[in-house]
Amino acid sequence: MTHKRFWLIAAIAIPLALLAAFLFVPQTALAQSGGGSGTLSASGDGLAGIRGSGTVTISGNGILWIKDHAGDASIHVSGNGVRRDLSNGWIRYTGFQGQAQVSGSMISVALSGYDIHLQASGTGHYVLRGHGTYSVENDGLVILQGAWTEEIQVHSLP
Q1: pLDDT in tens, 62-112
Q2: Which end of the chain is more exposed for a tag (fewer CB within 10 A), N or C?
C-alpha cells in the first residue's frame, strides 16, 4: 500500500511543481522574453496554463489556479470545487469541475487535470503539458498547431 501511496503523491506533486515553475516566474522575466498576441485553443489532459493580458475561458476537472496580478481582473467561476484564497493572491479550486472565465491586464490561469478545454485571446505565454492538441491563430489564420508534450515548455503567443 505504501508503494501505491508514493505514486499517487508523485502523480500530484510533479504537475504541481511544474505548474509552480511556470506560474511563479517573476513578471519581469516573462516581460523580457517577448510574449506575443493571438488566440490559443487547446484540449487535453495534463496541465494547461496561461499568463498575460486578455480573456481566458477554461473548463475541465482537477485543480484550478487563478491570479490577478494587476488587480483589475474580472473572474467568473461556475461548477464544483472547494475555493481557497491564498495569502499570496492566488485563488485555488480543488476538486474543480466546471468552467472559469477570466479577463484582465495581467492574469494567470491554469488547470491541472483532465478533460481540459482552454480558449485564450490576448498577449502572453502559455504552457501545455500532457496529452492533447492545440492551435494558435493570429488575425484569423492558424499559424501553429500541434500536440501537447510530456516536457514542460513555455511558449509565447505569436
Answers
A1: 999 999 999 999 999 999 999 999 999 999 999 999 999 999 999 999 999
A2: N
Three cell numbers at 122?
A: 490576448
What is the residue-wise DSSP string for 24-83?
A: TS-HHHHHHT--EEEEEEEEEEEEEEEEEEEEEEEEEEEEEEEEESSS--EEEEEEEEEE
CA atoms of 99 and 117, how far apart (whole Å): 9
| Structural domain boundaries enclosing 90 | 2-156
Contact 126, 40 (CB under 8 A): yes
Question: 92: which 3 cell numbers?
Answer: 485555488
State how far the Cα of 38 lies from the Cα of 69, in Å rounded to an integer.
Answer: 20
Within 8 A by CB and 6+ apart from 66, the residues are: 73, 75, 77, 90, 91, 100, 102, 107, 108, 109
- Residue 137, CB half-sphere, CA atoms under 13 Å: how many? 10
pTM: 0.79
Task: Enter the C-alpha cell of residue 28.
Answer: 519581469
Please, are residues 126 and 58 in contact by the beta-carbon 8 Å criterion? no
| Total domains, the chain | 1
C-alpha cell at 12: 500530484
